[in-house]
Amino acid sequence: MFGQLKLAQTRFQGCLESVQRIGPENQEKVSLLPLTSSFDPEKVIVDVGTGYFVEKSRADAKKHYEDKIAYVTKNMEQLQDTIHRKQDNVRVVGEVMQVKALQQRENA
């Protein structure tokens, strides 16, 4: 689960970097062109998931990916907190079991 979130975060970060690189100053470097007669370097196609794409302004696309990165980062932090709590619980249970085993040996 954590690995999948990290992969999604990396992918969204790459998308954000791509959106930031697009602009009028480098429109000659575009590798994918729309099938229409006009080209607007301020518009990009954004993958919004499950095979759906929407046209957004560069600013909206940037915000979209920043929001996605923030969402995934928040989920990763929550998952990391849960993992730490579970690890603490396992450690405490292990310590209690050791104490019980020691007590049982002393009683025997």
From TrEMBL:
Instruction: List the InterPro entries.
Output: PFD_alpha_archaea, Prefoldin, Prefoldin_subunit_alpha
Extract one GO molecular function annotation from the record.
unfolded protein binding
State one Pfam family annotation.
Prefoldin
Biological processes per GO annotation = protein folding; RNA polymerase I assembly; RNA polymerase II core complex assembly; RNA polymerase III assembly
The highest taxon in the source lineage is Eukaryota
This entry carries the following GO cellular component terms, namely: cytoplasm; prefoldin complex
Give the family this protein belongs to, as stated in its UniProt record. Answer: Belongs to the prefoldin subunit alpha family.
Q: What is this protein called?
A: Subunit of tubulin prefoldin
Tell me the organism's taxonomic lineage.
Eukaryota, Fungi, Dikarya, Basidiomycota, Ustilaginomycotina
